[in-house]
Design goal:
binds magnesium ion; 13 strands; six-stranded mixed sheet; binds guanosine-5'-triphosphate; 4 domains; alpha/beta; Rossmann fold
Length: about 450
């Protein structure tokens, strides 16, 4: 389904566009620079820049950013009481609609901040869930988002109630950030009903997953690669560059892609690989979201090879690589062979960062999905990996077993076919794992 944004759809009603702009909410972002013994791999500046991008993606205008240094969270308000009061006074002037915290807040902290600040208080997870709710297109993605929202909402139910009575549940755009998506309308039910709904969602998702597994097992086992990586790293762009088509929508926004898309890539005569593009990762990806999207992601992780796409033009690609590896570990995907794809090299002024990463990962391939640089090398590497472990065979197939020849075309690379009187002689490269139906015909 095509995705459109107000900026790129010329047919969009100007009226509607203006209405959206007028309704866009204004937020004050609040971050904490943790100075405790653990520190943070992600600097507070990077994290706030990312929160700002998340806010923009959710359609929220950032009016101001406030950072406090602390060595541990304040139990009841995360930041100190003096800072909270400072925020309240600041907002008498700015009159923002939302306080958006970069750190996740406990239900208690949210309630307390809510009361003192008298504005909508949201955290990072709220915004990520909101973006997912806005972007979910397929039935499965919608159910997964709803499940994640409900799980996140349950302990916060009382707070949600007061908000919903203020803004009107499920009213789409008018409810504003943090109130969108099916999950929010469900909040009007009592906790028991929500539990029942969650049970149903888990069952429906389980059914969908089983159904897809059946479909998958019927399919030929082709070499499969999955694109993984930080959100906005350029995964969809790399898929488009590899296939030479613009199948997958790309945008300079976070979490553009939610649903997996698979394309067959013909690499050289006969051999093809399946490449799947999917949802991106982010530092501190909400655990509940990972849990809800586990089904989607598990399928992605059944790949023979992961193409881990990295935006080398980003301020801190090394931290992003680490964040992705963390999520992969959480999903038990660390064991899958991985090829690092260093993308956006066209944006680099100095190659120092690139050579640092390459020193650490000598197999990494530098590419630009925009200029096409390095894409052929990536395709060759895919071809080599897909062919790795194949052996050369000669088969003598009886004429009536023509199906086996199709099987060979599908699973291996056919190098030569000679139609004799008695039989067909075929020379082919094939992985031994596909040899079973052909074993009797090896020459
Ligand atoms: N200059 C440059 N821009 C790129 C390159 N690859 C991707 N981009 C841009 O980066 C932005 C994100 O690209 P996407 O392909 O949507 O990234 P993604 O990883 O699929 O992002 P999500 O689906 O949101 O996780 C888009 O604006 C792309 O045009 C590249 O090699 N060079
Ligand atoms: Mg994408």
């Amino acid at each position: 389904m095509p995705h459109t944004t107000p900026g790129d759809d010329p047919s969009m009603d100007l009226f509607e566009l203006r209405a959206r702009i007028e309704q866009s909410e204004r937020a004050i972002l609040v971050g904490v620079e943790w100075t405790g013994p653990e520190g943070d791999t992600y600097s507070v500046q990077d994290s706030m820049a990312e929160l700002s991008a998340l806010a923009a993606t959710a359609g929220v205008e950032v009016v101001c950013q406030v950072v406090q240094r602390r060595n541990r969270p304040h139990a009841s308000t995360l930041i100190g009481a003096g800072k909270v009061e400072e925020l309240r006074v600041l907002n008498e002037e700015l009159n923002a609609d939302i306080f958006l915290f970069d750190d996740d807040l406990t239900p208690g902290q949210m309630r307390n901040l809510d009361k003192i600040l008298d504005r909508k208080v949201l955290d990072r997870t709220d915004v990520i869930l909101d973006i997912f709710a806005q972007r979910a297109r397929t039935k499965e993605a919608k159910l997964q988002v709803e499940l994640a929202q409900l799980e996140y909402a349950i302990p916060r139910l009382r707070r949600a109630w007061t908000h919903l009575s203020r803004v009107g549940a499920g009213s789409g755009i008018s409810g504003g950030v943090g109130t969108r998506g099916p999950g929010r309308t469900q909040l009007e039910m009592d906790q028991r009903l929500i539990q029942r709904r969650m049970k149903q969602l888990r069952k429906d998702l389980g059914d969908m997953r089983r159904q897809r597994r059946v479909q998958r097992s019927g399919r030929a086992k082709e070499f499969a690669a999955s694109l993984v990586g930080y959100t906005n790293a350029g995964k969809s762009s790399v898929l488009n560059a590899l296939t030479g088509e613009r199948h997958v929508a790309t945008e300079d926004k976070l979490f553009k892609t939610l649903d997996p898309t698979t394309r067959r890539l013909e690499i050289d005569d006969g051999r093809s690989v399946l490449v799947t593009d999917t949802v991106g990762f982010i530092q501190r990806l909400p655990h509940r979201l990972v849990a809800a999207f586990r089904a989607t992601l598990e399928e992605v992780l059944e790949a023979d090879l992961l193409l881990h796409v990295v935006d080398v033009a980003h301020a801190n690609p090394v931290a992003q690589i680490a964040a992705v590896n963390e999520v992969l570990a959480e999903l038990d995907g660390s064991e899958i062979p991985t090829l690092l794809v260093l993308n956006k090299v066209d944006l680099l002024d100095d190659a120092e960062m690139l050579s640092d990463i390459q020193a650490e990962h000598p197999d990494a391939i530098a590419v630009s999905a925009v200029t096409g640089e390095g894409i052929d090398t990536l395709r060759d590497e895919l071809s080599a990996r897909a062919g790795a472990g194949e052996q050369e065979y000669e088969f003598r197939l009886p004429h009536e077993r023509g199906r086996l020849l199709s099987y060979l075309y599908e699973h291996g690379q056919v190098d030569d076919v000679d139609y004799g009187e008695e039989e067909v002689t075929v020379r082919a490269h094939l992985h031994p794992k596909h040899i079973a139906p052909l074993r009797d015909y090896v020459a």
